[in-house]
Design goal:
The structure is a homotetramer. Chain A is of the alpha/beta class. Chain A contains nine helices and 15 strands. A nine-stranded mixed sheet of chain A has the order 14-13-12-11-7-10-9-8-15. In chain A, strands 3-2-1-4-5-6 form a six-stranded parallel sheet, with helices on both faces. In chain A, helix 2 links the parallel strand 2 and strand 3. The radius of gyration of chain A is 22 Å and the shape is globular. The N and C termini of chain A lie far apart (59 Å). At the B-D interface, strand 14 of B face strand 14 of D.
Chain lengths: 355, 355, 355, 355
């Protein structure tokens, strides 16, 4: 009988990674880096000794530290994944880039677009990979929606409607928009692939701390494309649903369905051409109804694919799908939403930084 | 064997009613007046001879006519129920009131609040009953929500969220807000019982006729109560769901559920008092989770109860629950929503006419 | 203004029909015959004067009577539809056929197979149409399943599983098997199109009247095809679900779904050939998983189609899909189920009378 | 920075455990013993070196071996958990007991009741704990059902109906009854707490290996209590639902619901007393319908509670809830089901060994 020492056999081209932050999401990054064949999880950092010791018990061969500087100084670490509270993303990512480390940073990328732009510039200057953890972009359902849209099967996009509500953990540093909407905004950014024109948001705060716990965000684009986001920490029921409507087909993505997460409806509208001025006021819109199809999706854990993508991008010097620009675009909408909630006004978005 | 002549045996105090409009909704009014023991359906009016002949076949003893004037002139008719296109509500109701008839008018009550106010004034002057057909207010589920709110079981109201979407019939004279939102606005008006402060709406039109087919409306009240309405003719799936969130309990009303339309969640939030300035930024919000209860509801057809209420109100000279003022309040929000969609601005509502 | 007399304008080849029985189902037959363009509803019979007067109010031009003999004697009546308690089906149908009337009889066709056979013989002798009201056979979902099976899309049939449970009205003359299973047995008879080999049933009675209120029936066929039926009056939830499993595709038919009643799964099994004796015990069965499709179904009321079929069959002297033989086959299984429940034995079915 | 060695700090009264079998279920036992504060996971055994090396990587301080004898010989091991194929349960458990180890054995306990009885006798003789892994008995939903039944809230039990179907992994050594039904039989055994009277089962085999892939089992008890089990590897949809019907209340337990797994219906039946012979054939059964309640359940992982119970029972010499007798009772029904499927007969169960 032998005690087998579990060590990660270094590949020829293996990426040495450290993770900072062992809260809710960090352990998922840790597990996925640990299990990735091309990565080696070298170290984990957190300020909380209890969290660190849990990690140490679980992964005895991984270094643990409460000093972020240890990661920066460690010459064997190629990349740092940051899963800490939002307001620390910028300083931690900046230091990592300055120390020559590639960076994978949790969403939202930073507290404002200025910070995002600074990180983007720094990464370009140092020729380092800067990727934002927009996990849902790597989800089988979202990738399938993207295919349907890009193939033209949906026809012209008419709307994108998202609901992400629950009786949730209240965050003490950010409102519900910054907590939940990044998921859906990153999905929309990926699917729609266009720059928004205006943002309007309304929210409500019931906890006396000035942080909205319910919010509604409307984003408009050219050509009458409209997107809407309902986020809430105050719903008795959990809903995670996105509707994507095209002129020819429409999609319902229900993330809580275990099997049929995506339903593609062969439903759409037809708009007749008015032949006279009188007809302009007549009803020229029809709708058509056909079959529904629920495709068999790739159910690989999205984060596993994402971590693989990050490792690939670093090893092969490729630009990630969810690069700093994608992170910036999401933060721009979050900023605009906050401003709209503060002023009551519709914000016309500055398209700088938008693809 | 005998051919029994089905006539309505007039009660001592029976209300003689005529219905104008045999489109989608009119036949429901006709059937319910026909079956009401205290009413007698005397006549039906429509411009379309095909629709009239269908009614005539179904109710051989009821007079049919394509001339509205016939109803006005008929001295045996006490009340007229109006189920015609929205832009005709005002002229038809006005003529009926001027002819001394009580009026039940389809929702929305009229094309603008000025028209509503004129009808209200006219009815008061003539001492006639003017009721708006806000059917959902008479629905067992809505009445139960009202009870829960009024009894204090829900605690302070935090939000009202409504979704009413479908792949729907496009109306040629009104947008989706005026078509669908009156249902939910009338429910909110009844449940919340407070005057709104601001309205904001965004919509999108994809049919080239200037009529929005998707819209989102946010209504705010004092004390951080927020209401939101999503209406659409462009959804591949049908949703009819209302969430009502209170500090102590929360309700989900799903109108498409056949049995458990209402679920009352013993869920809520607790807000701690900060003891210091520092704590103001800490997380003082907790949430509690208990059982869920789906009450056994009275499933009597809402319209049957409503027709009974109208008949009662006329016979006993009572003010209806959904009187002209209720109709006006709904139209005020619809007007404000249209203005907000046109200008992009948040509309501060004029509380004139609001309870 | 005129009181239009609604009379049914007799077509050149119109079928004059009478309906006996105005309980739960009769009014549906009455309405559908009334609305059918090739039929004329002449008379309605019931012993209960209240039920008759309701019909008379609703259909003032239809004759009403409490004497069945009136229908038999009426020379203007071509066909009689029987919607009375089960034990009266045989005597009423027999008298109708003897009086030269075509017959549509409610399911189950009669109290035992001997009665069924006597009616079949009588109808053949008199060259009259004898049809059993197996309504579900005319349902869009069932017709679509039949198409999928007949086209070979499902591959070899492996099983048919049905659940029809509810907190239901207890019948005082028949058990739950005779009350509910005829629906599902008639669907199975139509879909499978093969003679069963054995029947086994277990039931339980909790009301002290000897009538089972819960029962489970297993029907086996050749080639390992198995069918199972769960019927209950004692379930707190309503379920109406049928699974049809083929080697290549599988279908779920959920009758309570409003839109997607039918889901066709591209799922199946593959069975490998063992290459050696050792392999016979190895796992040679795989399964494949593909997309799911919910076809857009014809949602015409099944009874409307069925009534049309009956009228056509009589006018054009065609054999109905759900003829006396189909009715007999269902009653044979019901009889066998009762015998199995009584004796605890598996009943080998006598294939006489089976297609 | 330090590499923290994660070792399990032995408690004063800590149970040293080994697990044999690292297939589908073994890793869950391993994880739960590893995380239990009163247990120490000492060693893991499996014949497959790949599985062992995965465990070794995951738990570097745990001994791994492919020789079961190593576990038996290891004096530091107090208890062995067996998660291997069913036909090996008996020999492995027997050897463990003979080596003086306490045993937790996967369900079904053994291949037949004779084996079960031999293990029970052996454990009693050696004063060792013998527990069967009937995990669901420790599930919050099942414990709640048990409470409702024991408190009398459900009234007299009328039926127990279970469906556990999926498009599943075919087992090569056991049929679907032995694979899936132990879950539901163990739940029934726990909830009902009575000895069954008869067993009848029908199954069907479509893979040519003589192992049923679909089966229906009916179990009857005294007083008209009936239980039924539908198990299948051939369903396109996954269903895991149990109905428990009492005279006063009824429960639906849907294990696939994420939140409201249990719904307790205030529904039941009332049976009148017939006052005369005539009335015996009249309908004396009514039903009542009230609210539904979905209790907030303890969602602790059932296996965690079970492992805690096993550790407690060993350390404190208590009899486990799911002891060898419980395991035997389940195997007796499985045996009877197999015999019934083979012979087509209803099996009268020998109540030896039944509580």
């Amino acid at each position: 009988m032998n005690t087998q020492q579990a060590g990660h056999s270094a590949n020829q081209r293996s990426l040495a990674v450290a993770v900072v932050g062992c809260g809710y999401w960090g352990p998922n990054l840790i597990r996925n880096f640990y299990e990735n064949d091309q990565a080696e999880l070298v170290a984990v950092c957190d300020l909380d000794p209890k969290k660190l010791s849990k990690i140490a018990k679980r992964y005895p061969n991984v270094l643990t530290t409460d000093a972020y500087q240890d990661l920066l100084n460690h010459s064997g670490i190629d990349a740092i994944a940051i899963a800490t509270p939002v307001h620390t993303h910028f300083p931690l990512a900046k230091q990592a880039l300055e120390a020559g480390k590639h960076v994978l940073v949790e969403k939202p990328m930073a507290m404002n677009s200025k910070e995002c732009m600074e990180l983007i510039a720094l990464a370009e200057e140092r020729k380092l990979i800067l990727m934002v953890d927009h996990t849902f972009v790597f989800h089988g359902a979202v990738r399938r929606i993207k295919q349907e849209v890009d193939s033209g099967a949906l026809g012209e996009l008419l709307y994108f409607d998202s609901v992400r509500i629950n009786l949730g953990l209240f965050q003490s540093d950010i409102n519900v928009v910054w907590d939940l909407a990044p998921h859906d905004l990153s999905i929309m950014d990926y699917i729609v692939g266009k720059a928004p024109r205006t943002i309007h948001a309304t929210g409500s705060c019931h906890a006396g701390n000035g942080l909205e716990d319910i919010a509604y965000i409307t984003v408009t684009f050219e050509n009458d494309l409209i997107a809407h986001f309902h986020v809430s920490w105050l719903s008795p029921v959990k809903v995670r649903q996105i509707l994507v409507g095209g002129k020819s087909r429409m999609i319902v993505y229900d993330d809580l369905e275990s099997m049929e997460k995506l339903r593609i409806y062969d439903k759409g509208i037809t708009v007749g051409e008015p032949e006279s001025d009188e007809q302009r006021y007549a009803n020229l819109v029809g709708y058509r109804v056909g079959d529904m199809m629920a495709p068999n999706l790739d159910l690989t854990e999205a984060l596993k694919i994402e971590i693989g993508h990050f490792v690939d991008c670093v090893l092969n010097k490729q630009r990630p799908i969810t690069d700093g620009q994608a992170g910036l675009r999401v933060v721009q909408i979050l900023e605009a939403a906050n401003e709209s909630m503060r002023t009551g006004k519709t914000i016309v978005i500055n398209s700088v930084g938008v693809v």
